[in-house]
Batch of 4 targets.
Target 1
Amino acid sequence: MRNLYAALNKTETLDNENDHIMVQIQLHGTKTQVTINAMIDSGATENFIDKEFCSKYNIRTTQAKTTREVYLADGQPSAMGPIIHAAKVAMDIGTHRELATFQVAKLPNHEVILGMPWLKRHSPRIDWGQGKITFESERCTTWCLKESPTVYAIPEDKAREENLKVEIGATRSKKDQRIQVRLLDPQARIPT
């Protein structure tokens, strides 16, 4: 069976900030919680989380029932690779709390993508121009919210900078952590 996941707006090479917004989220892994910025993308037909990110922050993954390939809107295979794991993790967006389900993939540009399943489930009112997200659906007001239903988007450059700080901070805080480096030139040498 071939699954076509509409575009992710070609997440691998996103250049247009008008087709998505960034929002700060907090994920609660098995040992720690992490604050990161997620992309809300109405072109993504699934919710995704980066495989390396799950590993780094002890976000538990489970084997998917079936392996699924990810395709872009033009029918080409995505660099994200096949989906072989899923993750369920507690997630906060402002005072909105839920148990979120993600497909685990190699995400080159974002750690978390909230797509159409998330948008349909919570039906937030999004003012794309103002970058304002309001959770006012019956589901959210009954189950997800602790307080105010409105959160604000973050400019993508700021979101990426904050995410980089989180990643660097996590790398520095662990002893004996090895960093994987891909050589782009066979003649290149890694300084020691």
Target 2
Amino acid sequence: MNLSPAAIAITRLLPESETMLDIGLRLAVAVALGFVAQRLLFLIVRRSEIWIEKVGRGKVLAQQRARTIGQIFRSLFTTVVAGAVFLYALSVMGWDVRPLLATAGIAGVALGFGAQTLVRDVIAGIFIIAEDQFGVGDLIEVNGRSATVEALTVRCATLRDFNGFLHFVPNGEMKIVTNRSRGWNRVAVDVPIAHDEDVDRALDVCREVAGAMSRDPAWKDRLLEPIQVWGIDVLSVQEVAIRLVLRAEPGPAVHEAARELRRRLLRALSENEIRLVAQREIVVASTPEVGPSSETPPAPDARAS
């Protein structure tokens, strides 16, 4: 049977059937070993996450850091194992991988000079993770936007804001990062009362509300210290603002405590008949239309006829 030149060329490129069977078996073994190696490395990463959580005594911060580090090392190990299996597969199929590795080294040097932004992002990501500046689950403010960290790699951070929008921020672009999920948060609650009210009585009511809420078992454990009444913070012709300050752990606790404090203050001031600052209203009075009868008659002509 006569074969076309293209078929003859393809036939010459393909090895013999025995060789193809050997190549297939070696590739299957390489893929299986690569999968087993990946699973073992993932197991080591999981053990490391558990150890980090134990060192941090199971705190939320330790859990977030463990998830972040585990995510990065899983991606790194997957890339390394897949690259090794790929290079071995090329060598099994008859390719000389040494020139390929040399070319990859030269390309890496060229990439280092040409992709300086990428290198900067990676270096910044390494310092972010090593210094534990923020992790997955933290609420941060970067470049004027507040969002929750959903993923963190050595190149970029994935953030989701209040509206549900997803932002991908390169690590090298983060100049100033504010972490709102570490240590404690402080919230100021201002009470604007009318300027003609008894300020001393209003301060006493605020102190009573602050003390009662600080002693309440439902809120005592969620507050890091008793609620403080700092006193008059704003003094103007229209209003007098009394400021109260509470401190709690980061997260929903501090905002829920602030809402509860406002509710109790409003009820207590209403019961003691202390008026809040009145809303200013601007009334625009319309000018009545002038009828024809009210028009001023024209002046008589003084010129002689």
Target 3
Amino acid sequence: MPFVSRPSTPAGLAARHARRVIIALMASTMLGAAAHAQDSPAPADLNLSGAASSSVPAGLAQLPVERQVAWLEHAAQNGEFAPLSDAQLIAVFQELAPDTVPRYVRNGSRLYWECEFQMFSQQRVRGVWQIQPAHMLVRYRRQPRQVYVKWLADGRNAGQETIYDELKDAHQLYAHQGGLLQFVAMWTSIDSARALAQSNHTVRELGIDYVTEQFLSELEKYRAAGVEKPTKIEVLHDHGTRIVAFTWETPSGQPEFYAKRERLGLDLRHPFFRTVEAWDNQGEIFEKFSFLDVTPKHFDDATFDPKNPEYAF
């Protein structure tokens, strides 16, 4: 029977183009590593020479997880995802093994054990959804756990400040409200009704690393329930920045899992989830967070001192 070529579908063309993009990205990784071999080792000890006789892997999916992670780290750090279309990005991340993104964010979590970031937060507290997001500046140190938070002018509770320092008191935080009451600061338990009046999370749970650890903990439960991969991968925008979002749908929802459905948006330049959204068993969203301008820092003691002249305690 004579061979008759079939017209390619848009999905097929996107998949084939994505595979070519993967090969091109991996080739650029190797060429970049070779060009700087005398100055530094290949990124994350990425050794692709055994992947194929041509020294260029035939496809990302065939690489072991550790090499996929190294490739992902290099591609993100060098901005190589920026030129890709949404369809190409989705196809690339669909090629990855189930353990690659989890290991990538786990490896990167340590970078944010001491950092500054801005955060937009909306939650359903005591059954009521916060229509206006809170916009916060956060300075965070994991060890010892120390946190400074300021609610910024364009968000809910503007002018409020909180400081937590476990070296001074592991069970209490120091805070003041905004507006006319900003000069009335007081100590309160981190899990008191006052401290949790605006959030379902304590001040100790404000770090980028907490989001990563929460995801990894839930991932173990997903897999125990037979959910090996996200149910959906898509490209979204958060505050003008593209992210790749992974939706996880759980079979039974709460209370066995943190949420019935959760969507986490991966930053395309750095190893952390830029966005987190969670829905309950009734399909209602109960929290939505965005992390912006995340910058690793080394803070001095004044950062977590209420007497810092930059603060309004």
Target 4
Amino acid sequence: MQRTWSKSGSEATGGVYGPAAASEPPDTVPVVAGALHDPVDHVLTTTRAVRRRLDLDRPVDPALVRECLTVALQAPTGGNNQGWHFVVVTDSSTRSAIADVFRRGAVAYAERRDKPSPPRRRRTEAERAARHRVMASAGYLFEHLHRVPVLVIPCLEGRAEAGTLVDQATAFGSILPAVWSFMLAARARGLGTSWTTVHLEAEVETAALLGIPWETVTQVALVPVAHTVGVDFKPAARRPLDEVVHWDRW
């Protein structure tokens, strides 16, 4: 399927196409709704975690998934080792079994008392409302994961939890950019995704279901993939840039 950017910024054949590129340098492009000048910025700023708006009844062409994975393999990887693997699950009975593991993992994670606490800060009313919406949509995915037509489990050769902080950072830094590239490519093709990890509470059980050699391969996420109901996603509200950027020192 050929896709081209239209001069008017319209959408074409199932994908998401933003405005035509402007003449100013990319680092001057304002990343705010309605002011994006570059189609790359459009995809980068409108790739949302999609849960409620996954089309659970529409099949996903395996060729689309392969396209997205081909893009993902161009991501950077430590030492160019390319120790990544992607388990793509479409069989309905296997998806149901993984969804059961996911739900048990979510419950186990919620009940754990040794989870690291996020740093405390005062949240605005809008942030609290957004948090409520996120939790509600996560609950929706919890209930409907078995109906999502494609589940992708990215994996990394070796056990990533072993070693020092620099070892772990190198390991995860060698797979996470590829997964994000996959999610961006999916967005550009009219597919929705979200990053989930709670099934890792039962990683060994998932490995047994899928034949993943747990002792030598680490699962890093579970990414639901489906066509979206509509493609009108927008940039999300975020903290002001000056609250999180530190020039020259903290």
